[in-house]
Design goal:
The structure holds 2 protein chains of 2 kinds. Chain A is mostly helical. Chain A has 12 helices and no strands. Classes of the chains: A mainly alpha, B mainly alpha.
Chain lengths: ~210, ~100
Amino acid sequence: MAFTVGLYGTAFGAASVAAGLSVLQTCLLSLLTFTGASQFAAVGVVSAGGGAAAAIATAGLLGTRNALYGLQMAPRVQLRGWRRILAAHWTIDESTNVGIAQEPLGPAAVKAGFWLTGGGVYLFWNLFTLAGALGAKAIGTPEVWGLDAAVPAAFLGLLWPRLTSRATRIIALSAVVFSLMATAALPLGTAIIASSLVAVVAGWRAR
Amino acid sequence: MLWLIVLGTSLVCFTTKVAGYLIPERWFHHERVQRINALMPIVLLSALVAVQSLTTKTHLVIDHRLGGIAVALGALLLRAPFPLVVLSAALTSGLLVHWHLG
């Protein structure tokens, strides 16, 4: 997992610098936002020419699942004060999944799994973000190194395990078609956030 | 504008995480809210894949990136691990640029 997080962090650092953010801005995103898909989305909207509102809204919508993870972890970590804030900040896909997977071993193992994974991913994510940002700054043009294809490929890799049924595949394809039409029809950089409508429409009616 | 995005994204995402620890569970119990929330990552990631590999500004463009994505798709179908998927896409795309094919 550390290797995957490391490579993904490097890809984020490089993509962010390629999108025009400084090394400092890139590292702050990883330190303060610390939720990969949202960070990628924010710099993705920037490189697609979008404004601040579209970037923040897209990243925010992708981050809503972390609230559901928090809901699951709150009764399991049982903390107050600053430790609870830190637990919230480290509540991401990996830490929640590993923590809950330890459930059969008892509450102490759940806490240990959650904290070790959260802390480990936080450390690696930030170190490799810095490495990727410095690397991209050193090499200059992203096209030559295939960086501009690595970012959508990373999104595809994140999407793939979620396409578990025929319904989800149809919805994903609808989102692809909708976003391409929206790119041509709507103001620059708003296509991705507009695509959230597909989720609302598809989720509104019962299956 | 970039600073606004960095700080705004961080604030929104952090607040969302803290909210998960603070708001009552029943708020999320609406079936419709849960369904839409479960579909949101699928839709946004699909849109990001499409827009980032097939468009430049407001135009549809077919170039080296599509070659990279096609190889990534093949790698996923062969159950390749995540790093290999990303690296194969980058390598393909980079080579297409290098050979002036994209």
